[in-house]
Amino acid sequence: MNQKLGLLTVLLLLGIVFFSFIGLKAEHENYIPFQKAISSLAQVENMKVDENSRLLDRNGDLLYEFNSKESRVYLDYNKIPEPVLQAFIATEDQGFNQHHGIDGKAIARAFITNSSAGSVQQGGSTITQQLSRNLFLTHERTYDRKLKELLISYRIEQQLSKEKILELYINSIYFQNGVYGIEKASLYYFSKPVGELSLAETAVLAAIPNNPKLYDPLTNFENTIKRQKWILLKMKEQGYINEATYEKSLDQHIKLNVSQPVVPFPEIVGYVKEELLSLISASPSHKNQTAEELVIERDSLLKSGVVVETSLDPLLQKEAVHAVNARLPYNGVEGSVVIVDHVSKQIVSMVGGKNVGLEEFNRAYQAKRQPGSTIKPLLVYAPYVDVYGANSNSLISAARICEGNYCPNNYGGASYGTVSLKKAMASSINTAAVRALSKTGVNKAFSYLQPFGFSSVTREDYQLASALGGFSKGFSPLELTSAYTTFSSDGVFVKPRLITSVKDKNGKVLFAWKEKPVSVWSGKTNSVMREMLEAVTISGTARDARFAGSSYIGGKTGTTNEVRDLWFIGLTDRYTAGVWVGRDTPSSLRSIESASPEVMIWRDIMIKAHQK
């Protein structure tokens, strides 16, 4: 009977709206066209609402929640506690299980009231109508919107089960303060999942959606409690709870425990989003998409409740952040760190500066700086050793060299004769490096850089000055640190990543990296290079890097012209870590050069890392 009365009411409203409001074209243009709204219901059984996606560290702990304008944690129907369902049915739609989306009696009653008032003053909305309004329409009180709401609601009931309608409703309603859905509301207002709430606490949350501003428990707590008591009364009247439970719930003292969202390492978020773009584009089904299409795909993915798992080590990240801030107390001087685990070939720490906020400029992967002498192992000595079969004791002239108008000098104007490759590396002798690059050949040497995929190397960089770090644009700390991992992988390069997988909320893997190892130089060459890199920390420019706890310590320092950048990229038996120190607007760091902050930051972190 209710269904027939509802349909008759709809037909009556159609006639009234057509004859009474036919001239109000402007009103119709303000809302979603009915046909468009109806068309969107063609696949209504697959209807979804945006939900938060989670970013996790290597231990599975939460780092960040991605959300759109609607912060939501979606709950499937079988995970929604029964008292939640009962509270909303008892107060919002007592005939929910009987009607077909439209409660004819309620509509007729509201229609008479609104006709007398000359405007829409009273609703007769079912839960299904509220759902259609939340998902497809606006909340304006006009006959045009109401008519669409009625017809869409009837269509929803034809295609969805009552359980699915309740599930969508419970997850779509607004709980004030940017919170949508019962689970997120519970986590926000009580700092616990909805399944752990008492009946009294559940009724507090159920009170909010009826008028989120009026019943906001943060600003109108008394109003919220009044409606909470009314909800408990309705639940008792409907037989959902007995008198004893009702009285007990009324007596319970309600104490909010509002969660204060904390992002422990905000600098990670921006990089994860960038890496996720690359991960999606590497998928066969997305390879031909444009950059704009990939961004849309990524943003859509992050609204679907996925879980982004990463290799971030929270303890190492904390130590790295501390080391950068402790060793760089100077105004305007910044630093960045990247750490890669040799075993997993994954990034375990990335610090983009002293105080990098959410999606702010991250110097670890966005800053491109001149590399100084840190480029020598990659561009000069590894290719030279590989081409000529040299060893660390092989000799090379470090005498003055001029190639055309290019006549490089050594640090402090020092002069050398013939030296071993180990000595040339340890003391960072520029003339020896340029001579080695010249003997290998610029084109041949640069071919060794190609597997690393350096984003800013151009043909104009193919010159001898590059042996000393004279590049047109430079490198990011992430790029250089990643390349150095080859020295810990027997000459084989695997690009390190932070994301390990992207899964849907049921645990199905949607995306995961499938990096292919690339052999850059021979294993014999790699052994020679490790010996030379170790010499840098034993007798060379990075002696301060040594500490007890690792069977191997090697690396290379780098200083650019006028001491504008300080670098150290070092290796232990477990990690490769790169540190850069400088100013965002390059200027001299000569006043702090003697403190070797780049080496000391590296050492501080590695000591802690090897105590684990």
From TrEMBL:
The record's listing under Gene3D superfamilies reads: Biosynthetic peptidoglycan transglycosylase-like, DD-peptidase/beta-lactamase superfamily
Task: Please state the protein's primary subcellular location.
Answer: membrane
> Reaction(s) catalyzed by this protein?
[GlcNAc-(1->4)-Mur2Ac(oyl-L-Ala-gamma-D-Glu-L-Lys-D-Ala-D-Ala)](n)-di-trans,octa-cis-undecaprenyl diphosphate + beta-D-GlcNAc-(1->4)-Mur2Ac(oyl-L-Ala-gamma-D-Glu-L-Lys-D-Ala-D-Ala)-di-trans,octa-cis-undecaprenyl diphosphate = [GlcNAc-(1->4)-Mur2Ac(oyl-L-Ala-gamma-D-Glu-L-Lys-D-Ala-D-Ala)](n+1)-di-trans,octa-cis-undecaprenyl diphosphate + di-trans,octa-cis-undecaprenyl diphosphate + H(+); Preferential cleavage: (Ac)2-L-Lys-D-Ala-|-D-Ala. Also transpeptidation of peptidyl-alanyl moieties that are N-acyl substituents of D-alanine
Q: Which domain of life is it from?
A: Bacteria
Where the record annotates domain Penicillin-binding protein transpeptidase, the positions are 335-572
Domain Glycosyl transferase family: from-to ranges: 60-236
Q: Which UniProt keywords apply?
A: Carboxypeptidase, Cell membrane, Cell shape, Cell wall biogenesis/degradation, Glycosyltransferase, Hydrolase, Membrane, Multifunctional enzyme, Peptidoglycan synthesis, Protease, Transferase
Q: Known Pfam families for this protein?
A: Transgly (PF00912), Transpeptidase (PF00905)
> Where does it localize?
Cell membrane
**Protein name, please?**
Penicillin-binding protein
